[in-house]
Amino acid sequence: MSKPDKRYYKINIHGQEQVFTNVEKVDKGYIANGVDKDGKAYQFYHRLSQEQIDSAIISNSMVFVEKPTDVVFHFYLVNDSEYDNGNKETSGIWLEFPADIKRIENALEDIGLTPDAEQGQYFIEECQCILKSLNPLVNVRADIHELAKTAERLDTFDGFQMMKLDAVMQTAAKFNNLAEIREFTHNDDYYVFEMDKDNPTELGLYFIYDSGMLDSLPDHYKDAINPTAFANYIIEAEHGVFTSKGYLYPSGDEWNCKELPFFRPNSLIEDVDDKLIDTTEIFAVDLDSFFRETSDEYSNMFDDVVKAQKHIADYIRTNNTAQVKQIIHGMKKEHHLSEDEIQPYLDRLDNFDKNKGIEKDYNFIAVVTNAEDYLKGDFESVKIYLPTDKETVSRAFEEIGLLPHAVQGEYMFDDFHLYSEKLHSVIKPTESLDELNYFSALVFRMDDGMCDRFMNEIEKDKNIKNLTDLINHANKTLGLAARYNGDKSTIPAEYRVTMEPASIKRSIKKQLEENKGKTTDVPAAPAKNKKNDLELTI
After folding, report:
1. Is 263 inside any structural domain?
2. Whose CB has fewer CB within 10 Å in the chain, the N or C terminal residue?
3. How many structural domains compose the chain?
């Protein structure tokens, strides 16, 4: 077999022009990949005669897009506990995805883990993705099974589709996690991609002469059209955007979710909103319908649909979106709903707050800092509004020079903004962020009356001496049977945000002991050395 010819051949077959590439001679004939109008190769071969090849027109008008590699993720998988014990050389293994389940299980066994090892027992020290734009989506605590699923889906993409994904990742519609990437692999027709068209003039010339858009127009009329002005008009109408890979715009196709039931991509351009303007009435109808589909109890309790919808709308009109959010969170807990199921409604409430200029009513703010830098008196602080999520905490840690999976002792709290003096006296600078988040989430579930009663009770209760006591009193106030004994591994998964491994590497107490003689208390850093006070919101 001869070496493949990667030029393009236009061949008339049965009166229809076909395009082929990767032509190879086999015996007395040829085989070649078929190519569609976008330059994508078909998955089957055409057998061609010598006569057909001799009469073919070699074309340079198309650029065949090859996949950069068949390896989607190439990463170093590390046994967490072995790494902590200092066995850096023997604690990890390089692994390539796509890979079948047997290869994954063997890799886990090779680094001293069981085949069913879970996230937290291992971490990813280094990862190279098939596209550089995907690298930020793979953190050190990524789940290898989620990586495997994503790699399996991306492996179905050809070079052109990969380039389109890369283009999307350069826009305001870029995807934020691997699950969204997998959704895109089922919906790549949601966008139209004109490869290598990176300016209005070039795009305009393509529209006029090559796209087929104006085929019925005589050439001398086409010559009279200003290509730049024509392209700019179309770009605005299509909400298109230029990327380093080419021109991208929404096709108008519906987005069909496979894993994330309520996911919809953002607009390619930040200041463009293709969605209908939301109103309190529309939202009240949607949320009421969601509650009725989820809970028979809700339907029985609020059998008057119109009245129930008016009740929800009134909450929003009176700027009481926090109350509605509490109801949604309560519904999630009671009926074991996922974050994906409730997040669209929370996002819409946030939009109401934003549009009306309503400030979020956070339970409290924790000002977190790098413990090592704090002890040196030269540090940065980041405000985290609680309750929060893992992604926000990871970003906060990175802002203060910590790894996304930093553990208690590596971080500490420079300050708190709390609404109770009792909380200030009980909550310490060395608290666990998981425990703080757990407590704040419980308080967040309380309505105004319940919260006021809770605060009055803890002010008077002399037996409340630590964060564990606060958590248990909050559970009691909410009527929950849960009893917290201070074991952070028992905190419900939805409240754990630090991705801490099973063993705590070091404690602030140890650091203070190492600095014995300098101070016996947590030192207050000089104001002049405090670099900045960044804010991160959920």
Report:
1. no
2. N
3. 4
Q: Are 400 and 382 in contact (CB under 8 A)?
A: yes
Element (H, E) at 336: none
Q: What pLDDT shows up at residue 184? A: 96
Minimum mean pLDDT range among 90-94, 110-114, 418-422: 418-422
Which of 279, 281, 286, 284 is CA-nearest to residue 355? 279
Does residue 300 sit in the same domain as residue 372? Answer: no
Phi, psi of 424, rounded to the nearest 5 degrees: -65, -35
* Residue 37 near residue 22, CB atoms below 8 Å: no
* Per-residue pLDDT at 150: 95
| Residues 45 and 120 placed together within one structural domain of the fold | no
Which strands make up the sheet holding 41-48, listed edge to edge?
Answer: 41-48, 29-35, 16-26, 8-13, 57-59
Grouping H, G, I as helix, E, B as strand and the rest as coil, residue 35 is strand
Spell out the residues 6+ positions from residue 442 whose beta carbon is closer than 8 angstroms to its own.
471, 474, 475, 478
Segments forming the whole domain that contains residue 110: 73-185
**144 lies in the same domain as 162:** yes
Task: Tell me, yes or no, whether 339 and 371 share the same domain.
Answer: no
Quote the CA–CA distance of 409 and 404 in Å, as a whole number: 14
- Determine phi and psi for 374, rounding to 5 degrees: -60, -45
Co-location of 419 and 527 in the same domain: yes
Q: For the chain, first and last CA: distance in Å? A: 58
Verify that 37 and 21 share a domain, yes or no.
yes
Residue 482 burial class via C-beta count within 10 angstroms: exposed 0-12, middle 13-18, buried 19 and up:
middle
480 in any annotated domain? yes
Is 199:242 a contact under the CB 8 Å cutoff?
A: yes
Dump pLDDT digits (tens) for 479-514: 888 889 988 889 988 888 886 544 344 444 455 555
CB 70 within 8 A of CB 124: no
- The pLDDT assigned to 419 comes to 62
Residue 324 belongs to some domain of the structure: yes
Residue 517 C-alpha from the chain's centroid: 46
Burial of 159 (0-12, 13-18, 19+ CB in 10 A): middle
What DSSP assignment string belongs to 47-97? EE-HHHHHTPEEE-S------S-S-SEEEEEEEHHHHHTT-TTTSEEEEEE
